[in-house]
Amino acid sequence: MHALLALLSASSVLAAPALSKRADIKCPIVFDGRVPTAWAADPTQFDTYATNTIFNPDYVKGNDLKWSQIFKFPNVTKSRFDTAEHTPLEVTISDQSIFQQQKGFRRAGLQFLKDAADGPGQTGVKTLHFSVKQDPARPLNLTHEYLNVWHEKADYSADQIQFQTGTLIGKNGADKNKFQILDQNNKQLYSTATDKSQWQNFAIKLDYTKNQVTIYYSAGDAALKSVAGPTSASLSGGGQFQIGILKKPTGTSDVVNGGFQESNLNEGQIYGGIFLEDSANNCVSL
């Protein structure tokens, strides 16, 4: 009996992500995308407006999938801005990750529940925080282009900010093992090598009043530092943030509707510390 209790106790410890060195959020939170730890035990919380108080339960995902079928909750150390009440979240894609009739893409993109084309996320000075970690059991196929975090214009004509990896379409793949942050004209604002073992923490400050972008970065538990900018970039056009995976096809000029995607997909990107803060008076949580 004592051996069984000891085994059960050890199993519960292994199931809970370890808490690393924490950092406090210093600025007012506009949208909080950090996931409550309790939701890992009942991911159906993500599936309806009645229970999902964080993200839009309907968008953007495979037509026949629910978020509870898409998310995984890996046993990894918590990211820099996650507290004991928060858990890392893995967004996955499969053969069923086809949104509407976009048969070229495989995608699953989270939208903040209260984000809107003309809402508070599109005015003043705001900073988007997110941390990413790689899952060796669900690696990305870097011969493809991946759009993982972005801010899409209200008319869907462009993405003002793009956080990408893999072989960008039209490129030779020399940078495929890097994360790149681009503006809407695909001008590179910052890049860093993908770390296969530890968390990578990003903060993108969007100054809508000056059309400027400043990027902050750190690895592991280290405090973020300014690494690029402020750089001029058009941020007009409103829109919404998306956080997840959009895998583009190869072998086509019509990436939305055609091209090649492998079968039996099982790919994922782990996220933590997702939130949008108000950076008035140059406030940025580091």
TrEMBL record:
Keywords, in A-Z order: Hydrolase, Signal
Domain Glycoside hydrolase 131 catalytic N-terminal, first and last residues per copy: 29-280
Keyword Hydrolase tagged: yes
Signal peptide range in chain numbering: 1-15
A GO molecular-function descriptor: hydrolase activity
Pfam families attached to this UniProt entry: GH131_N
Protein name per Swiss-Prot or TrEMBL: Glycoside hydrolase family 131 protein
